[in-house]
Specification:
The longest helix has 7 residues. Helices cover 5% and strands 34% of the residues. It is globular, with a radius of gyration of 19 Å. The protein has one domain: Deoxyuridine 5'-Triphosphate Nucleotidohydrolase, Chain A (Distorted Sandwich).
């Protein structure tokens, strides 16, 4: 277990908004809650409001991901989920419905999960050739299934 601890400041933009939280202390993701009733149209998508804003520390980002139960049981998926450290606006979640029926999201429902991840300083270096590897240039499906 890591000794490092981060504090994420957050602000409720609506009285009934919920703070991101974990169901279990060992969970990697923080549950995110819808702050209003929303209909996700069949085979479509919608923006779900959370009515919270956050300060992600410099050197980190937040990644919004599916809740596995919603994905498996209801074909409900998240899209476009990166929050940079400089963003201070409302956190919202793009939700896609993979079914032929509308999906009703009720206020207070766990709709997604959020991971807080480090963002290392990266430098790209253009080169003429790349080191060889066992896989080489094999693409999708090149290792079997």
């Amino acid at each position: 277990m890591s000794d490092q601890s981060l504090t994420i400041k957050f602000k409720k933009l609506q009285y009934l908004a919920k703070m991101p939280c974990k169901a279990h202390s060992t969970d990697a993701g923080f549950d995110l809650f819808a702050s209003e009733n929303t209909t996700i149209p069949a085979r479509g998508n919608a923006l779900v409001h959370l009515s919270i804003a956050m300060v992600i520390p410099d050197g980190y980002c937040a990644i919004i991901k599916d809740r596995s139960g919603l994905a498996v049981k209801n074909c409900i998926y998240t899209r476009a989920g990166v929050i940079d450290s400089a963003y201070r606006g409302e956190v919202k979640v793009v939700i896609e419905n993979g079914t032929n029926n509308n999906y009703e999201v009720e206020e207070g429902t766990k709709i997604a999960q959020m991971l807080i991840l480090p963002v290392p300083a990266i430098t790209f270096e253009e080169v003429i050739s790349l080191d060889e590897s066992d896989r080489g240039t094999g693409g999708f499906g090149s290792t079997g299934n």
